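Q: Hi! New to this. If I give you a protein sequence and the SMILES for zinc ion, can you show me the bound structure?
A: Yes, paste them in.
Q: Okay, here:
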Amino acid sequence: MSEILIQNIDHLLTMDDTRRELSGVDLRISGGVISAIGQGLPLGGAEVIDARGCVVTPGLVNTHHHLYQSMTRAVPGAQDALLFGWLQKLYPIWAMMGPEEMFVSAQLGLAELALSGCTLSADHLYLYPNGARLDDTISAAKEIGLRFHPTRGAMSIGESDGGLPPDSLVENEAAILEDCIRVIDAHHDPREGAMVRVGIAPCSPFSVSRDLMRDAALLARDKGVMLHTHLAENEEDIAYSLETFGCRPGEYAEDLGWTGPDVWHAHCVKLDGAEIDLFARSRTGVAHCPCSNCRLGSGIAPVRKMRDVGVPVGLGVDGSASNDSANLISEARQAMLLQRVQSGATAMSAREALEIATRGGADVLGRPDCGRLEVGKRADIAVWDCRTVESAGSWDPAALLLAGPTQVRDLFVEGRQIVRDRQLSTIDLGKLVEKQNRLARALAERA
Ligand SMILES: [Zn+2]
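A: Thanks. Here is the predicted structure of the protein with zinc ion bound:
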């Protein structure tokens, strides 16, 4: 079993139950777990990482992404559109993608996340053109080395049925459920410390039928996997729900079995008071995506209110077609700032936003074994060097989101070092960037 000793940590933010912060301590990793935290731990033959001048936090957790979209950043014509118009511009481009684009874009997106401190990411892949499969992204994550929660998304209502996506991007509902079963059986690992867990995730209430929403929930409960979708993202979304289903999104979700601790919804910008209470009561999770909400002009999610009544909230960068950056520590800063825009400077502290980005996200994804630095928890750890230009002069380096590095120096996932001295150690990033640019250019030429 490999042993690593992270030594002389200036400031350790544990995110444990009492949110302890420790100074001048060491942290020992044995295999995939944290085996000791304390002062002057014995070397015992461990590989030593010197963390003088560093803040050490749990690895950040990303609860919402569409990794394939890193292939379509800053697309002209979709740069300034609202959600529905934005989708209509991008669907035909995404319809040209295939397995290679899915694999490369997933690697690129996960690499970007890792460099910004992320150790666990969910992904929501809801279109499978030209033979693409969820498996393409799972192979990508294995090579990068991140803990991965891919969700088998889906769309079944195409243009000819009054839906938004072109018919070529939608699937038959029976085939969707069948493929959900296939990927769960092939890849889902329910055990503590799992590196891959699969979820079921119809794209949104407006892109699949009521029947598929209900069947997806039944299947997820039968298989013991989690459920994920987009909900109450903006005013258009609420209007659509009222007009088409005759109720608000929260009621629609509850009716179809889409509430509970095994469900998390992305965005939830427009949840009203009753819906927030419903989510708190049922322990339904929220993936808050502040940059995407700003970029698409969707509004400010009521995160302060959600947290105050006990809704589990995690952070998501969302897809790179609507962010278009996927730096997770910067996303956490944005979450903090956005609550302050709405409710004043005391609305959210740097430490609370970091808590949402770590422990909060882990809880939303059903991973109490991650997101905190405690003996016995998984060794998913981010080391932030605060002797850099970005944090020089800071009186409180542990308030990482105010000043501080936006890239990790070192990153460990399940005890394995993925980032070393600001470089990915698992793949050749230069080659990957080249490949991604070549594929993106080819798509642009055909568009
Ligand atoms: Zn999304």
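A: The pocket of zinc ion is lined by residues 64, 66, 124, 230, 266, 318-319 (CB under 6 Å). Let me know if you'd like me to explain how to read the tokens.
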